[in-house]
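User: Round two. Same drill as before: sequence, then structure, for each protein.

Assistant: Same drill it is. First protein:
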Amino acid sequence: MPWKWHQTAVGPGRPPLAEETAALIQRLARENPTWGYVRIQGELRRLGHRVAAATVRRVLRRSGLPPAPQRASQQTWRIFLQAQAHTLLACDFMHVETVFLRRLYVFFVMEIATRRVHVLGVTAHPTGAWGARLACNLLMDLQERAGCFRFLIRDRDSKFTAAFDAVFAGNGTAVIPTPPQGPTPTRNDGYAQPAPSAPTDSSSPANDTCVRS
């Protein structure tokens, strides 16, 4: 009786990578721009996914994500804000119209992590010296917490002068102007929109030095 050889059909190559795992690889790469392929592979293994470093590289290439050094250099403004939120202050002006049809400018500073807003002063004629005095007042209000803030974000308004920046530099706080045509964190959160008409016309007192009388 002649023998017949039967061979079980086997699908070509390895089984495809699960979509959930591929999405996790992309997420880890985006949220951790300094992680290389091997670092991502190790994190996946810790989470219960056994994936080769070559597979991680292939997924990222297919997704248009560059290697770690390039991803780190392409870190976006939004990622910077998320990573440094607890060390960030942001300041801006908003304006109000009084019942006497007079425009007043309100200067405020927001702690990004907690969204706490410090309304520092109101005036009809904002000047660089006025803003610098209010910056001094803010640092005194923050007291020992002032040293926790490493960055102050502001826009490129001419009312922010070198004297204003110098107040924060003396505190060890770096001033970061927003990119041209870039988002201001306070505006994105709705704090710097024109406010409803104010009931009265007033201005906030500010001393000529950083020491209040």
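Second protein:
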Amino acid sequence: MKIAMLGGSFNPIHIGHLILADSVCRNLGYEKILFVPTACPPHKELSCAVSAEDRLEMVRLSVMDDPRFEAESCEIDRGGISYTWDTVCYLEEKYKSVLTGKIGLVFGEDLLPDYDKWDHASELAQKADLILACRPQDTGLKAEYQNSPVGEYGKSPMKGVTRENFPYPHKIVQNPKMEISSSEIRQKVGEGGAWRYLVEKRVFDYIKQRNLYAK
């Protein structure tokens, strides 16, 4: 079975994440996509953060109707800073009886300039199949709704790096470039904007019922 992981804060998960996962399956032949909510990302401080349990539950609600998709709680269960290297090693062992080839690691082009700062970056590019997706930049959002880089992230990025010239072995997935982000959704919820159809209906209901992201 060809398996890929899609990690992130999923704060909250939205339809763009689901469309990306579908693109990886249809365009690259993956049979299972594991959605892995981070416990504590090493590269950013989460804005308007809700609990890890809420973020995981929203992922579960989003993927429950598609047998190709699955919520994977390993990073939250592990706790602490979530390093992708540790997660790939864990998933490789967990699925070794059914895994075909390497674990696929899906992430957006917005992360490329700082990839060299990832834990075990070079080794990770050999251990997993890096799958690079197009992703729009967050623009026009208030600072209070945006995540903040931590440590060395964002200070000395690789210049001019794109999906095409990324200096590590990789694949490119041709996914629709959705003008949607979790930061935008948090801002729309907080300011009373329109966001109903940016998330799955169950996630919309969950956010409303628990009053998440509201001021």
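Strands lie at 3-8, 32-37, 44-45, 69-71, 104-108, 129-133, 148-149, 171-172.

User: Perfect.
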